[in-house]
Design a protein that fits this description.
This protein is α/β, with parallel strands linked by helices. The protein is built from ten helices and six strands; from the N terminus they run H-H-E-H-E-H-H-E-H-H-E-H-H-E-H-E.
Length: 242
């Protein structure tokens, strides 16, 4: 296995493109999960990390297309009134993406996704009242297809204050009406969901003080760690050793 400390220390001394060389050295000869899924609450960095890992491993991406949901903007302004339509649209959309993925899987391409199909029920349970959820479950049981199981799930965690700050900084108009109570609800729902999740190896990442985009050492450390995850539940929080 490459000496990660030496790789990290050499980054500042190398010319442009050295990051790619360091990554190639780090992953050389190591087994990479063929299907990775990244999950976590709004603003935690799922899509950003998905795209970066896809570039690193030369993987195809399967991304949430939240901007296509015509009910989402109204949902953030009035969750109670618009929850069912929002959830059903996402359910149909994600199911279609999974189906398309299976149809294209003739040559077993490697992929990385920023959502689990199971997360749809997590959001539905958090957002719908009992009668709406019963209706949702009836629809879910009829259309959900046999989604392929990931070889690795990465669950990104951050406290609500960090999520609120990141949502504000990225400045998406549709998200500016998201309130603190909703993010607290989602964090609790995710924590409960992954407390019992055992369908795939799970890597839980504390993102509070980690910057995978601007800090190359953080990113290299994550890659090095995830390539060692083979089963069970693992935790990545390098700041506790710094």
């Amino acid at each position: 296995m490459p000496d990660l400390n030496n790789l990290n220390n050499s980054l500042d001394k190398q010319p442009l493109g050295s990051e790619r060389l360091a990554i190639d050295e780090l992953i050389k000869g190591r087994e990479i999960p063929r299907f990775i899924t990244i999950e976590g609450s709004i603003g935690v960095g799922k899509t950003t990390l998905t795209k970066r890992l896809a570039e690193t491993f030369n993987y195809e991406t399967m991304l949430e297309r939240a901007e296509e949901n015509p009910f989402l903007s109204s949902f953030y302004k009035n969750r109670r009134q618009n929850a069912l339509a929002t959830q059903l649209f996402f359910l149909f959309q994600r199911s279609q993406q999974i189906q398309e993925m299976r149809q294209q899987d003739l040559f077993s391409p490697v992929r990385i996704s920023d959502f689990l199909i199971e997360k749809d029920r997590l959001f539905a349970r958090a957002n719908l009242d009992d009668n709406e959820y019963k209706l949702y479950e009836q629809v879910y049981s009829q259309i959900t297809i046999d989604a392929p199981k990931p070889d690795l799930v990465i669950y990104l965690q951050s406290p609500v204050d960090v999520l609120m700050d990141r949502i504000s900084k990225r400045g998406r108009n549709i998200e500016q009406s998201i309130d603190r109570n909703y993010l607290e609800l989602l964090n609790e729902a995710y924590s409960e969901f992954f407390l019992y999740y055992d369908d795939a190896p799970l890597l839980i990442v504390n993102c509070t003080e980690i910057d995978f985009i601007n800090n190359e050492n953080d990113y290299l450390s994550l890659i090095d760690y995830l390539l060692n995850v083979r089963s069970g539940r693992c935790y990545f929080n390098p700041t506790i050793f710094s």
